[in-house]
């Protein structure tokens, strides 16, 4: 939005009516639309605007530093303070928001307090000698070449167990070329790191105009373990056994699920020690419900239920028992 402050014309008198007039201007046509038009004495009217980050300032028409804060939504002006040593021209540094001004006669350079309008002398703005030297009449800060809304997107990453991952910030705004400085000392736009545990990485990105932004990413490593101990054999006398997965990851965030294609689970298929009564291959799936990571382990259970065979060794001498 383009704003302007100035005076309105009285059509009946064909003259300017001095008033505090705030207008919006169409940059394509130059047409102005008045937001507010209030006639008053010159020390109650502003005719210049200066924009700071999050604030707008105006000065009065009298040529003194009657400093106002201006609400551009309705044109209302709130008096801040007065310091007649400065001119009506004020300018705002586009990055810091600091106010500056030029004195009307001796062209001295001042900083202006945005809280009370007081002026602090900085220096003389003569560019040559005091006799006929060029003097500065007004100040205007150009907007920064760099896009001050430079942003970086670097989303957090979740890994299932220690692994490599690539970190690439998505940058918007600023002025190319960019330089990168990661917290691990690397300077590439995209880096690959091995994370064995949950870690944080940060990157500072600086553009060609010196503007910088820092972003941070958390790499969460979800270490998960599924481990089944070597089971006992099933026999004629040992017809059921409990499988043992107590060395697996444990906690409220973990769930367990047993399955088999050729065995039989009697009970406890969602526990760490299910009861089984048949040989076969058994699989345990461990899931971390927080991260969605899973781990699997498999075990073979042997079932030995063959009946024993009794044999007689007849290779020795044959004995006869005679009853007398």
Structure, explained:
By secondary structure, this protein is mostly beta strands. The protein has three domains: 2-124, 6 Propeller (Neuraminidase), CATH 2.120.10; 151-222, Immunoglobulin-like (Sandwich), CATH 2.60.40; 234-304, Immunoglobulin-like, CATH 2.60.40. The chain is 0% helix and 47% strand. A hairpin with a 6-residue loop joins strand 6 and strand 7 (77-82).
List keywords for this structure.
324 residues; mainly beta; Neuraminidase; Immunoglobulin-like; 27 strands; 0% helix
Summarize the structure.
By secondary structure, this protein is mainly β.
Shape, please? rod-shaped
What percentage of amino acids are in beta strands?
Answer: over 45%
- Helicity level, as a percent range? under 10%
Structural class: mainly beta
What is the annotated CATH architecture of the largest domain?
6 Propeller
Present the secondary structure layout.
Blueprint: E1 2-10, E2 15-25, E3 32-39, E4 46-52, E5 55-60, E6 66-70, E7 77-82, E8 90-92, E9 99-102, E10 108-112, E11 119-124, E12 151-153, E13 157-160, E14 163-167, E15 170-172, E16 179-182, E17 191-195, E18 199-206, E19 212-222, E20 234-235, E21 241-242, E22 254-260, E23 264-267, E24 275-278, E25 280-288, E26 294-301, E27 303-304
């Amino acid at each position: 939005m383009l704003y302007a402050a100035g005076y309105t014309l009285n059509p009946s008198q064909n003259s300017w009516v001095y008033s505090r007039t705030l207008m919006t201007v169409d940059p394509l046509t130059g047409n102005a639309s008045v937001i507010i038009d209030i006639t008053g004495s010159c020390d109650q009217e502003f005719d210049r605007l200066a924009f700071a980050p999050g604030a707008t300032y105006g000065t009065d028409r009298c040529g003194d530093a009657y400093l106002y804060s201006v609400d551009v939504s309705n044109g209302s002006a709130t008096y801040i303070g007065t310091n007649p040593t400065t001119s009506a021209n004020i300018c705002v540094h586009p990055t810091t928001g600091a106010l500056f001004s030029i004195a009307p006669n001796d062209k001295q350079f001042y900083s202006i307090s945005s809280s009370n309008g007081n002026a602090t002398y900085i220096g003389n703005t003569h560019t040559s000698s005091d006799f006929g030297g060029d003097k500065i009449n007004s100040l205007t800060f150009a907007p920064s070449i760099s896009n001050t809304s430079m942003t970086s997107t670097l989303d957090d990453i979740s890994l299932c167990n220690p692994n490599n991952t690539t970190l690439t910030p998505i940058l918007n705004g600023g002025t190319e070329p960019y330089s990168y400085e990661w917290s691990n000392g690397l300077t590439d736009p995209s880096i690959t790191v091995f994370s064995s545990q949950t870690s944080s990485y940060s990157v500072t990105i600086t553009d060609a105009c010196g503007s910088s932004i820092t972003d941070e990413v958390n790499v969460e490593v979800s270490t998960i373990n599924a481990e089944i101990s070597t089971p006992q054999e099933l026999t004629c006398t040992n017809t059921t056994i409990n499988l043992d997965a107590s060395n697996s990851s444990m906690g409220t965030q973990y769930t367990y699920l047993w399955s088999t294609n050729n065995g039989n689970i009697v009970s406890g298929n969602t526990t760490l020690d299910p009861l089984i009564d048949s040989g076969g291959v058994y699989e345990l799936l461990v899931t971390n419900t927080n991260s969605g990571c899973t781990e699997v382990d498999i075990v073979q259970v042997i079932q030995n239920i063959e009946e024993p065979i009794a044999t007689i060794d007849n290779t020795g001498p044959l004995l006869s028992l005679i009853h007398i």
